[in-house]
Q: What sequence folds into this?
């Protein structure tokens, strides 16, 4: 399976001295539909995020078509200047989109799926050979207990209450779960409204991603990509952690990244 993850820090777009020049360069490097979408937005962070997403799609599609990178778990991180330099001298890849019945976008002419998310100062892009959902959430100091009681399942709300008195710890769990819900809603195309009450706490199985399929199968006898660790354990490599949750008769494979202070990132695909 092919999965590539990209993260862009868009703060350079907001720079009072150089931001406009960088935005002008970005308009020249994105596909036509993405550029028109950004032009219709008011100047500011939303336009910057839209253009940033377009730039990440450009680098992501180029690498996917060339099979430059595979499923190595890590996130490729860029600044605006770094990304523009990577694309300089290359005409934009022409991208066409189609939309599912719930509005989820797909590439019309490419055998890949993609998902985009932005929050705070970052844009996240994932390119995959299978359906996938992805989300990034900035920890922004909302009344997480009140929101959890209103929107979360009973078990999720209880876990939040049991997280202790330390506010940072409770916020971390809340936004981790919220990113899971957003990612799952993007995977299905139904959005977060259809997933808020779903119980997405981890606690079933964990897949260690640091074993190759062959090594995993031979060592554990569980078949390609299906190496299980006992309930409650976590397997991580770098900043990534892999867990599974069974929901509506389907096993969901989660990938979570917490290497950016104040943000939670979740990817979701069918296991």
A:
């Amino acid at each position: 399976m092919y999965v590539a993850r990209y993260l862009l820090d868009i703060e350079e777009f907001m720079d009072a001295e150089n931001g406009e020049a960088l935005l002008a360069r970005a308009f020249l490097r994105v596909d036509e539909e993405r550029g028109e979408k950004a032009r219709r937005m008011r100047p500011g962070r939303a336009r910057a995020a839209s253009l940033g997403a377009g730039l990440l799609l450009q680098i992501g599609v180029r690498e996917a078509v060339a099979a430059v990178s595979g499923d190595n778990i890590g996130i490729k991180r860029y600044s605006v200047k770094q990304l523009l330099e990577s694309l300089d001298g290359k005409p934009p890849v022409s991208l066409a989109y189609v939309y599912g019945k719930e509005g989820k976008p797909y590439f019309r002419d490419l055998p890949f799926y993609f998902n985009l998310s932005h929050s705070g100062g970052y844009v996240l892009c994932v390119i995959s050979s299978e359906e996938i959902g992805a989300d990034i959430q900035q920890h922004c100091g909302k009344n997480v207990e009140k929101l959890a009681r209103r929107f979360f399942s009973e078990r999720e709300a209880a876990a939040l209450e049991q997280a202790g008195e330390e506010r940072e710890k409770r916020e971390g769990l809340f936004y981790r779960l919220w990113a899971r819900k957003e990612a799952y809603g993007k995977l299905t195309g139904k959005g977060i409204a259809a997933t808020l009450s779903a119980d997405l706490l981890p606690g079933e199985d964990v897949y260690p991603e640091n074993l190759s399929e062959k090594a995993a199968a031979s060592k554990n006898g569980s078949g390609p990509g299906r190496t299980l660790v006992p309930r409650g354990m976590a397997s991580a490599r770098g900043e990534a952690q892999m867990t599974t949750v069974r929901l509506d008769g389907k096993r969901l494979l989660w990938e979570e990244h917490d290497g950016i202070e104040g943000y939670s990132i979740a990817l979701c695909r069918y296991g």
